[in-house]
Each structure stands twice: as C-alpha cells, then as structure tokens.
Amino acid sequence: MTKYIFVTGGVISGIGKGITTASLGRLLINRGFNVNVVKIDPYINVDAGVMNPFQHGEVFVTHDGAETDLDLGNYERFLGVDLNKHSNFTTGSVYKEVIEKERRGDYLGQTVQLIPHITDEIKRRIYQIGKDSDIDVVITEIGGTIGDFEMPPFVEAIREIAVEVGRENTLFLHVSLIYTLPNGESKSKPTQHSIRKLQEFGIQPDLLLCRTSQHLDDSIRRKIALLCGISEDFIIEGLDTKCVDEIPLNFEEQGMGHLVAKKLGLERRATLDAEWIAMVDKLKNPKHSTNIAIVGKYTTGSDAYISVQEAIKHGGIANEAEVLIEWIEAESLTEDTDLDRLFENIDGILVPGGFGDRGIEGMITAVKYAREKRTPYLGLCLGMQCLVIEYARHVAHMKGANSTEFDEKTPYPVIDLMLEQRAIEDKGATMRLGHYPCVLKENTKSYEAFQQPIILERHRHRYELNNDFRSRLEDAGLCFSGVSPDESLVEIAEVPDHPWMVGSQFHPEFQSKPLAPHPLFRDFIEAVLGYQHVRTESGEA
Ligand code: GLN
After folding, report:
1. Where does 7-277 sit in CATH, by number?
2. What is the pLDDT of residues 239-272, one digit of tens each?
3. Which of 7, 84, 199, 491: CA 20 to 30 A from 362?
4. For domain 287-416+464-481+490-538, which architecture applies?
5. DSSP-H helix ranges across 417-469
6. What spacing in Å lies between the alpha carbon of 516 and ligand 1's midpoint?
7. CA dist., res. 253 & res. 97, Å (int)
8. Strands (E), 144-258
C-alpha cells in the first residue's frame, strides 16, 4: 500500500517547504523505502519555463526535458534520484489538460466543474506518481501558502485522497513560521491561524514543522498542541541554518523519521545515514578556502543560479574546500574596469547560463581576463558561448564575432540559432531540452574529468556553435572536446594551453549531487585551488 505525505505551508512563502520535503524524503530513503516526490505549483503558467528567474528562481531541467520549479533540484540532490516531467505540475497544466479533454469530448454530456473534474485530474496525477515502479511513499508538496486564492482545489484534492486511501496511510505535514518579535518574544498566532485555515478545509495536520530563528520553548509547543490539536512531540523545530544539508540530520535528531514511519505504519529500523553525515562533516570542516567569481546577469539575493551554487559547493566537498562566491554583475564590467583589482582575490571565474544581451560584453571581458591570466574558468551554456565568442574575437582574429542572439548582423556569427529552432515561434517548452549524449575526445580536460567516452547531460538552449566556423576556431587552437554522437553539435569547448578553461553547452549543475559531485565542478575547483596555491606562493615571494 502506497503511503501519501502532503506538505503545506503557512504564514509566508519561501519558508523552506522544499528543503523540508527533500529532507523528510532523505530520512525515509535512509530507512530503505522507495520514495517519490511531486511538487504542485498553484500558478497559472503551464510550467516554469518562461518565468523570470530573478523573481521566481532558477528553472530546473529534468533529464526528460521538463522545465520545472527549482525545488525539484533540492529533491534530486537530497534524494539522489532523477525526477521527471510528472514530478511538477501547475494549475495551468491541470486546466489545460481538462479543457483539452472537454474539447475532445471525453466528458460528453457532463457539466465540467472545479469539483470533481479539476480535483480528479489533480488526484490522478498524484496517484500516478505512486503507481510508478514500487513506490512506498509519495511526498506531495503544495507550493504557496494555505489561504492563497489558488489553493482550494489542491487542498480539496489531498483531503479526498486521505479519505480514499485511508487516514492511516496519509500524513499531513504543515510547515509554518514562528515569528520572533524584536524583543525576542516568539509568536505562534500566525501559525495557529494557518492551521485553522487548513482545518476549515477538513484537514488536520499530523506533524508541524516550525520555522524559527530561536529555539522553541515548551510553552509555545504546549500552546500550539492544545489549540491546534497536534501532539507536542509531533511539533518539530526548524531552526534557521546556513547549511541546508544539515537539515535532514537535525530532523532525524528530533525523531522526525521515526514519528513519520510510526504514523504511517512503516516500521523499519533507521540506519545511520553515514554517507550524508560524512558529507556534512566535510562541508562544515573544510581544509581549504578559496574565492571564485560568478559573472552573470543576476547577482546574489535571488535563487536564479541555485543549482550552480550547489554544484560549486559539491565541487568544494570533493576537494575538502569551502568555496566562497563573489557575485559580479556582468553589466558593471566595462573596458574601464580595473580587472586586476576586481579579481585580486579571485581564484576562478564562472559564467553561468542566461538569455538576452544584457551584460554579455561584461561576461566576454571576464572570459578574456581568465584566458589571458590563466585563471581557471568554467562556462555553463551561455558561459560556453561567451568562451567561443571571446576566442574568436581575440585569438582567431574574427573582429566583431558574436552570437546572433545578441547581434544579428555580426560578421562572424560563431554562435547561431540551431536549425530546428528556426521555424519555432512559441516560447514555452520549445528549446533543446533535457538529456542528450555527448562523445568526449581523449586527452582533454573533459575526458580527464569524466573518465569515460560518452556522457549524458541536460540541456536548455536555442543557440549553438556555428559549424561554418568550427575548423577556423580549431585551427586557431580551440578544442571541441565534446560533440554529439553524429558530430553535428559541439557540446564542450576548451582552451588547451590553459590550466583549466572549459565551457559546456549543457548544464552540468543540474546533475551534481552532494554525494556525487559533478566531475566538471570537481575538477574546476581542483584547478581553482591549484591556481590559488600558485597565486599566493608568488605573492609571498
Ligand atoms: N541564450 C543561450 C541559448 O539559448 C544560452 C542558454 C542558456 O545559457 N541556458 O542558446
């Protein structure tokens, strides 16, 4: 019998439901259960593909090419699994499907309504996740906050699931905020109200996760327990932490895994999550510390590059190093910038993915600096395209070389729209998305990193290296160390006579996991530490 856990949020958005969901999943996986996760986003967009990453955070890409909410990245990293296009759905996608069915005549004669047609479609999708290959537990996270206008159909659907599968096979986990006043007093009333809102919908939460900036005292626990009908030991503290990877361990310490397993009748002895504990230990006790610069369109404060940040952290774990990130707004880099000063304490430069021409010249300036100063460089998708443009302009003597995304009239369109993209007009879900194989050339940095001839990596782009310029760039010394199996697409470019300068057309960050750091990030950070060593030695000399 598949068990169903539902995660809802109260009081404010961005309260950490995703990390909570991922952490709980980790605790159950560690008990030997097969866990699958689904994220519901109540907005009308059909998927996250055309949403602004500055406002909404990174668009995560699954191996089968879905453009999803960034929480799927958290799930994949914590659970160590690969999710798919069924793992995230929105109000928009549910309505789209129901309306398409109505047009096809699937509901012939019926009045199509919110209940049961929309709620049935929501339930069908959640049940479908449970049916996939032997799943013991499905965890469903509902985005947004209880009480939001878009929420009722989803809350009704999960209430019905609890009736259908039995309350004993269902667990409701509510994540809410305990607000701390400036005088240090903790306030539970907003949380109480959000629970009452859930109760109005017919849902009694079993487990409460209280996000808080200070330890929960017993009186708060007692008050919530009494007024909201949750037993005291089912109230877990979610104390603010800088190290999200530590959260599953904190939850386990408070007995969350045991409580959930007991409530769902999933009795199985917990083993120590030794690998995870060792990873967190390395993370918290690094032997080295180094600084890298990310030169991108957006700077810190948003979740626009969350997988990149995580993958850098993983590269650090693999090298027992803490990697501090200096965010540089690409637009602020001009010809007049004193680059030596700007990059004075920087041991590596990374240009992440992006769209549109804002900041491109600044990124290319940073690439030039990295190439000339032999600073380790990693380019991700757009960052690979910048590497190629810079090389074309300054090494291969193609003055004014560019991507047609930024300059349609460039004399040297070294990056150009892919053939199959030319007739496409719709923006949603029409890029080259998801896993594609890439064949690696031996005796290159890329081969050295992966140690295998063929890799599968995730993509999200419309432009590519223009084959008309391939041999000219190669003659100038650029190495295309990864290509598609039919050799028609360049997937990796690297600069051979440089300590480590690699750009990939794919997004390696989406596959990096704390327990399995991505080879390119691992080797990039290794090179960064090597550079730091040389830089500080020569500085001391
Ligand atoms: N804008 C570029 C393209 O569409 C790069 C995309 C990206 O970095 N994800 O090809």
Report:
1. 3.40.50.300
2. 999 899 999 999 999 999 999 999 999 877 777 8
3. 491
4. 3-Layer(aba) Sandwich (3.40)
5. 445-450
6. 26
7. 43
8. 170-177, 179-180, 186-187, 207-212, 235-239
